[in-house]
Amino acid sequence: MNDNKKEQKWAKELSSSCGINQSTLQSALEELSESCHGDSATSKKVIEELTLSCHFNEEDMRIFIRDVSRNCPVDVKKLQEEVHSAQGRKDEAYKAINRTIKPLL
């Protein structure tokens, strides 16, 4: 199974669990994986944590991904750790973005 099919399957399964449109999840994954130079596996963990633990809805997800994109480069592995440590609190998940911005050299 190629990567695109795997990502579609992942997005479909997560969509059925969290109620967020599959295309929104795929766009979020693409943005985190490509724009911010993160790996797909870590990006998936971030999105899963946001949707399942922090109970992000579709609008929350769009805002979060937009803010991450505006603040690139972001350390996606550190972002995943920070989102996990938010322990389901949306406000703390949003604050994670500022704590993971990589300094420009």
Q: What would you say this structure looks like, in words?
A:
- The chain has 105 residues and is an all-alpha fold.
- It has one domain (3-99).
- It contains six helices and no strands.
- It has helices spanning 3-18, 22-35, 40-53, 58-70, 76-85, 90-99.
- Helix 1 crosses helix 2 (22-35) and helix 2 packs across helix 3.
- It is globular, with a radius of gyration of 13 Å.
- It starts with a helix and ends in a 6-residue tail after the last helix.
How is the secondary structure organized here?
Elements: H1 3-18, H2 22-35, H3 40-53, H4 58-70, H5 76-85, H6 90-99
Helix pairs in contact: 1-2, 2-3, 2-4, 3-5, 5-6
Key phrases:
single chain; 105 residues; mainly alpha; 73% helix
Mean pLDDT: 89
Number of strands: 0
Unreliable stretches: none
Radius of gyration: 13 Å
Main β sheet profile: none
Shape: globular
How many domains? The number is 1
End-to-end gap: 39 Å
Q: Strand share of the residues?
A: under 5%
> Could you say which structural class the secondary elements and strand pairing correspond to?
mainly alpha
Quick structural summary:
With 105 residues, the chain is mainly alpha-helical. It has helices spanning 3-18, 22-35, 40-53, 58-70, 76-85, 90-99. It has one domain.
